[in-house]
Amino acid sequence: MLLQRPCAWLIALAIAAFALTPLIGDDVELRESLLLAAVYITLASNLNIMLGYCGYINFGSIVFFGLGGYICVYLTSERAWPLVAAALGAGIAVSFLALLFGLGILRLRGPFFALATIGVNEAVQAFVANFEPWGGSSGVYISTELFQPLGGPGRALWVIYFLLVAVMGLSLYLSYAIKCSKFGLGLLAIGQNEDAAAVLGVPTPLFKAIAYCLSAFLPAVAGGLYFFKAAFIQPSDAFDLGLSTEAIVIVMLGGQGTITGPALGAYLYEEMRGWLLTSDTFSNFQLVIAGALLLIIVLFAPGGLMGWIHERWPRLRRVLE
Amino acid sequence: MKALLEIDGLTKRFGGLQAVDRLGFVVENGEILGLIGPNGAGKSTVFNLINGVMAPDSGRIRFRGIDITGKSPFYVARLGLARTHQIVQPFATMTVLENCKVGACFGHENLALGRARKAAEEACALVGLDDRVTMLASQLTIAGKKRLELARALSARPHLLLLDEVLAGLNPTEIEHMVTVIRGIRARGVAILLIEHLMQAIMNLSDRIIVLNSGQKLAEGKPVEIAANPAVIEAYLGDPSLAASIAIEMPP
Fold first, then answer.
1. What value does the mean pLDDT take over residues A199-211?
2. What CATH number does residue A14 fall under?
3. Is residue A46 within 8 Å of residue A171, measured between CB atoms?
């Protein structure tokens, strides 16, 4: 039933395009750019479950990514787990932590919830920065020997890239499956009017906690793969609030609450970022643009690109969900 | 046979204000019970206490024999108690049908998506929204939104429906239609507890009426008895001649 809708095929097409285009001509530069895009799409799609579906602004969603990175680095280098097992283990551990955090902070609403999510991120960052077994504030390096089981450093980068594309694809399918389900209907109702949803019988605390927990899993797996590939992780990179904010801009740009929107937004944003970085006027210039962009979207097009497209061509609503 | 809803000694204070004071009444299966009283008498608070939006300070509420005092709204909804809001609360950017599907999916029957769609369509047809199911809720007129509130509550196929001023703000034609709809709902065996300011409508619809004043039960009885009750005329209607005119208009 899930495969009957055009959106499912669009997702499959995107995954195929990501997997195949850098293979043609062995284009490493394109691969690196698409890898970042895949990470952005993963972060944005999962953020969208909270932001777009439930209407809860998670400013600290990057904590899942960073914590996933740390746990995966720890499991591979200290415990000698294979990469895939370590990344999945990181995902499960972070989801469990998210459930605990969620049960606490999901009692808050609106701006108070947003503040609490920043607090969670800052607290975890402060903890890790002072946690000597994980290298404290100077971080941890991974020995390149760990790339050997994946076929040496050159091949390992390709393997990790394909794994990240898979995680991106799973993120999109997760968003899609939730939206088509009864659970998703409940989340959308919470996003529109939480009190009315509860009066109609939606078990709001449970649903919000599950959504928060689900939205933590794949970003943590992606963080594990990403920081393993980088072979280095430190608190200021892992828990970078800038990246959290960028994820919000991406979701708003593409269209909150839609499945294809965050993916489109992430791709466009990554393209823009690459273009701005090559201009080299000053570093992190993309954040200036991101801020301005967010302001314009919130003021003039709260539905983002997809919202605008849906309004202009209502027939496309069924295709570009 | 036990009553559908039994309320006993219900009390709620907001700071210095005694909103509901040792209130007790029952709603029988299949009846329409009217709840009237001047502004601030505590009618909406009683609704909020029954469906779990607020917890009472003391007192007991039993629904279908189960104690629901202080239980959460979604638990109460699942047991088969649905309500509408005085100020409409639609899911604005969802369609009319999706709004009703939420009620059908998570309410009393806990239906799967496919069957929820059917229940939602039935509810829309019952309130006369069947020609607007694909519209966004935000595009409806105020009368349309009131009907949507009702349709959404009905989609759950509840045992008891709490209606909070569903007629307020409607024009005479719309009121007439809504009264027919409410009668239709009762004909399906759903009991209704009704708050309404429109005297004629509530006197016409209700099997029994309870009058609240300052959170206390002032009177209880058949509409004719209520309209003739001196204490009610004094406290609520204020003007005895208005009361007399209502009494005359009552159907025999």
1. 96
2. 1.10.3470
3. yes
